[in-house]
């Protein structure tokens, strides 16, 4: 009689695998953190199906837990014929809203534990010339979904690559990519049923039945529901921006407001005097060193937009008409005749604003 080792077996997809394999007559090694629930599950499976169900308490986000399961997989006196790496967890929060310790724990469980257990199990299976590994990933592997999606994408790529390398060894490997399944997984992650459309929810027992059929056919990738097969196919063709928009909304809360008031990206409000007008030679009518009442000088203040002596009113320039009065000519600075120039309004201090990266350009165009 063959033996299957299943991780994360007390609920959800893991429990469905345990029930189906026990019904098919396979002995089991059940792995999870909750010893009480493990023993209750083992007793129930033994009573209903007459199979042996061993219990192995281990936390696969810790090195000691991974090492304990590795030791069991390498036991040649009681070999494991099928390994189901199912343990995992999710979260509904967004990047930077999740503690970094939780992110690292997720990578430890979804990537390192899968790598080490697959290597331990597949190595022993290859020596015997038979065996199989099912690594539970997710359709999130095909969508931008933060650390969770990235870790599941790694599971898919790793499993398919290993399946190719071991194709002639008698060891089969398959990545299973379910969608939203009605289990404790989403409840623990804080994902409410109402945040996901009803048509996207899957039944775990039907999912496992379809997955085992794909495994028997020798597939290295199983997306057992036609709805999610269509979605994953579209994901390969759709623009990444569209995928990001969809992924960021389904099963996740609305993003928190940016403390700076920006809607997109990082664009903090400018200081009150950030773009205040600065005095320069274009903003005053008197040269440096000349003040009101000076020899030939006009009163300080913004200029009217014309140069003194270039067709300006003699009274406003404070000079004799015959001294500086000349015929109008082109302003060398602007290429315009003085009578066509207009006074520039003084710059105003920019008020705090909401900013966007949609209109790239100068700071004035970025923030409106």
Explain briefly what this protein structure is:
This protein is α/β, with parallel strands linked by helices and 368 residues long. Helix content is 38%, strand content 10%.
Q: In terms of quaternary structure, what is this?
A: single chain
Given this structure, which CATH class of the largest domain is correct? Alpha Beta
Please state the average pLDDT score.
77
The first-to-last residue Cα distance is: 72 Å
Q: If you compute it from the alpha carbons, what radius of gyration comes out, rounded to the nearest whole angstrom?
A: 36 Å
> Strands of the biggest beta sheet: in what spatial order?
3-2-1-4-5-6-9
CATH topology of the largest domain: Rossmann fold
Shape: globular
Number of strands: 9
Number of domains: 3
Unreliable parts? 258-270, 293-312, 353-368
Largest sheet: 7 strands, parallel
Estimate percent helicity. 25-40%
Query: What is the string of helix and strand elements?
Result: EHEHEHEHEHEEHEHEHHHHH
Could you say which structural class the secondary elements and strand pairing correspond to?
Answer: alpha/beta
| Count of alpha/pi helices | 12
Q: What proportion of the residues form beta strands (DSSP E)?
A: 5-15%
Identify the CATH architecture of the largest domain. 3-Layer(aba) Sandwich
How would you name the CATH homologous superfamily of the largest domain?
NAD(P)-binding Rossmann-like Domain
């Amino acid at each position: 009689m063959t033996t299957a080792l299943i991780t994360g077996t007390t609920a959800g997809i893991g429990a469905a695998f345990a029930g189906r394999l026990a019904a098919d007559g396979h002995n089991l090694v059940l792995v999870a953190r909750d010893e009480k629930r493990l023993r209750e599950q083992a007793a129930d499976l033994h009573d209903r199906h007459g199979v042996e169900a061993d219990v192995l308490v281990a936390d696969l986000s810790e090195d000691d837990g991974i090492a304990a399961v590795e030791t069991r997989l390498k036991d040649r006196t009681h070999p494991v014929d099928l390994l189901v790496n199912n343990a995992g967890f999710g979260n509904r929060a967004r990047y930077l809203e999740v503690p970094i310790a939780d992110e690292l724990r997720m990578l430890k469980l979804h990537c390192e534990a899968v790598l080490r257990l697959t290597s331990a199990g597949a190595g022993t299976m290859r020596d015997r010339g038979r065996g199989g590994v099912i690594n539970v990933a997710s359709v999130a592997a095909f969508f931008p979904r933060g650390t969770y999606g990235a870790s599941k994408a790694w599971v898919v790529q790793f499993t398919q690559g290993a399946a190719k390398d071991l194709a002639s060894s008698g060891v089969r490997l398959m990545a299973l990519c379910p969608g939203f399944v009605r289990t404790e997984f989403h409840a623990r992650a804080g994902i409410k049923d109402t945040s996901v459309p009803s048509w996207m929810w899957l039944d775990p027992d039907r999912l496992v039945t379809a997955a085992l059929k794909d495994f028997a056919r020798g597939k290295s990738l199983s997306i057992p529901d036609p709805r999610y097969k269509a979605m994953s196919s579209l994901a390969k063709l759709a623009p990444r921006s569209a995928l990001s928009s969809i992924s960021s909304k389904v099963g996740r809360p609305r993003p928190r407001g940016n403390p700076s008031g920006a809607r997109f990206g990082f664009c903090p409000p400018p200081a009150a005097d950030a773009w205040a007008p600065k005095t320069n030679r274009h903003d005053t009518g008197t040269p440096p060193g000349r003040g009101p009442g000076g020899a030939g000088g006009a009163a300080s203040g913004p200029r009217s937009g014309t140069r003194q002596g270039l067709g300006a009113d003699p009274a406003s320039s404070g000079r004799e008409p015959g001294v500086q009065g000349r015929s109008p000519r082109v302003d060398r600075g602007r290429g315009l005749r003085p009578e066509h120039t207009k006074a520039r309004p003084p710059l105003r201090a920019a008020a705090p604003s909401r900013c966007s990266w949609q209109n790239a350009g100068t700071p004035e165009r970025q923030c409106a």
